[in-house]
Design a protein that fits this description.
single chain; 119 residues; alpha+beta; Double Stranded RNA Binding Domain; four-stranded antiparallel β-sheet; 3 helices; globular
């Protein structure tokens, strides 16, 4: 089973976990074990959302690669490994399709913003 790298920080007695390979995927707990367990659940939910939205799941990085990218990548935290079940259908969306959909979303947002100015 593959593992994702999580970074656990302690602040005001609470444990928080984040995943450098999955920006925005965070969780917390009252203990280290609880934070890691909750983090694994949050990561599973995050991956399901990526697949549902047709977003490519990034390749999992190793501890060594994180160390090589940035000397102080832990920022006072502790690295943990969290087992992750990568969905079989990582993403059906091609890069060209993603760009086309993004352009359509931007156009829609611009039209909506323009309409809201006049109403």
């Amino acid at each position: 089973m593959p593992y994702a790298i999580g970074i656990v920080h302690v602040e005001n007695g609470a444990f928080g976990i984040s995943f450098p390979d999955f920006p925005g995927c965070i969780s917390s707990g009252n203990t280290l074990d609880e934070a890691v367990t909750n983090g694994a659940q949050a990561l599973a939910f995050h991956l399901e959302g990526l697949v549902a939205d047709g977003i490519r799941i990034p390749e999992l990085s190793t501890l060594e690669s994180h160390k090589a990218w940035e000397a102080d990548w832990l920022e006072g935290g502790v690295a943990v490994t969290v087992p992750v079940d990568i969905p079989k259908d990582k993403s059906r969306m091609t890069e060209a399709k993603a760009i086309t959909e993004l352009k359509a979303l931007v156009k829609h947002a611009a039209v909506t913003a323009k309409r809201s100015r006049y109403h």
